[in-house]
């Protein structure tokens, strides 16, 4: 009789524990689902708020039909601008402070990034002559920058993302900072977003907040525009790594808030969602490309003259990655990195010439 009572007590106790676990699991599932729906709706609202289609440009002139990111290889031009009140230039009249072109291959879910030195002397179709590529945005806004990049690499630019400094700072801060191996020749103090020398940068691996990351992305007079581009690529990789981590899930609310207020793009929300597939197996393979060149002050104004051979190689790599020409997998010369499947660089010969102290904007 006592054994029966003990068995009943054990059975009742087990049943109670099972019910509690089941209830907690159901509650957790409901909370996660609700949070997912909330984040999705908020992201959709932010995307709609950020959407800014370029007039009379349904697709690139170099495309026969509009691409579908869910199945096609695509390219995205990231444009960083300083549209602060202090500059007084506005988002469409300011010079581009950063230009990074990304190509995405849908088959192997890989990404290639190329930073374009802002002082590169290139042909700007909008004005019909050569000038610094940073001036293209000042001449004709986003479309002028897109056309210039298309002319430079002879590939279509399918989408653009234009962000100001506030977006950059807020996104990094919303992530709780990013870990970056700060690649600078020596320690120095750099300007913050308000042009005050308040950011102390030290070489080496460290955690950076938004203002520090921006200062690092902008600094160039201590080495070169090429090294500046490499640092921008390192920062973008660090942001991608942190944003795709489990710890970032609870921070998506703040990230979306930061992006929605400070970004413009011609991607719809559905098109944005299609890029999630690149994160299905964690951080995708990201190869970084470098445009080699040389410094020129022959006219009294500083220009970065792109090396024609390096430019042609980069064109070939990007065209191949987009599937516009047959794939030549060895041409990039990439070296497989060990840091979360991120490649080190696509060009071993990085120019790091010291800038002339009389750099002109």
TrEMBL record:
Give the InterPro entries listed for this entry: LytR/CpsA/Psr_CW_biosynth, LytR_CpsA_psr
Extract one GO BP annotation from the record: cell wall organization
Q: Where is the Cell envelope-related transcriptional attenuator domain?
A: 95-244
**Pfam families per UniProt:** LytR_cpsA_psr
| Family, as annotated | Belongs to the LytR/CpsA/Psr (LCP) family.
State the organism named in the record.
Lysinibacillus telephonicus
Record's keyword terms, sorted: Membrane, Signal-anchor, Transmembrane, Transmembrane helix
Say which domain of life the source belongs to.
Bacteria
Q: What is this protein called?
A: LytR family transcriptional regulator
């Amino acid at each position: 009789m006592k054994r029966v009572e003990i068995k009943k007590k054990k059975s009742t106790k087990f049943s109670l524990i099972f019910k509690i676990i089941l209830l907690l699991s159901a509650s957790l599932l409901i909370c996660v689902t609700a949070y997912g729906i909330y984040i999705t709706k908020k992201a959709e609202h932010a995307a709609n708020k950020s959407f800014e289609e370029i007039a009379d440009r349904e697709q690139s002139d170099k495309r026969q039909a509009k691409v579908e990111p869910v199945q096609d290889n695509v390219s995205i031009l990231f444009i960083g601008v300083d549209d602060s009140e202090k500059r007084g230039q506005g988002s469409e009249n300011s010079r581009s402070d950063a230009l990074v072109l990304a190509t995405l291959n849908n088959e192997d879910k890989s990404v290639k990034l190329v930073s374009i030195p802002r002082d590169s002397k290139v042909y700007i179709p909008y004005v019909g002559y050569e000038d610094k590529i940073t001036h293209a945005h000042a001449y004709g806004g986003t479309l002028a920058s897109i056309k210039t990049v298309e002319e430079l690499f002879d590939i279509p630019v399918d989408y653009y993302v234009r962000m100001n400094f506030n977006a950059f700072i807020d996104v990094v801060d919303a992530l709780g900072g990013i870990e970056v191996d700060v690649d600078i020749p020596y320690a120095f103090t750099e300007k913050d977003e308000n042009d005050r020398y308040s950011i102390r940068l030290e070489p080496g691996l460290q955690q950076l907040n938004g203002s520090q990351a921006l200062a690092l992305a902008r600094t160039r007079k201590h080495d070169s525009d090429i090294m500046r581009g490499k640092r921008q690529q390192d920062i973008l990789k660090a942001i991608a790594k942190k944003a795709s981590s489990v710890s970032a899930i609870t921070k998506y609310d703040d990230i979306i808030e930061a992006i929605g207020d400070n970004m413009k793009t011609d991607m719809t929300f559905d098109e944005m969602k299609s890029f999630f597939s690149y994160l299905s197996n964690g951080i995708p393979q990201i190869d970084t490309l470098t445009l080699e060149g040389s410094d020129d002050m022959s006219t009294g104004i500083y220009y970065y003259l792109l090396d024609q051979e390096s430019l042609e190689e980069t064109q070939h790599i990007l065209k191949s990655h987009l599937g516009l020409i047959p794939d030549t997998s060895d041409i990039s010369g990439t070296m497989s990195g060990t840091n979360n499947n991120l490649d080190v660089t696509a060009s071993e010969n990085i120019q790091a010439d010291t800038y002339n102290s009389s750099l002109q904007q």
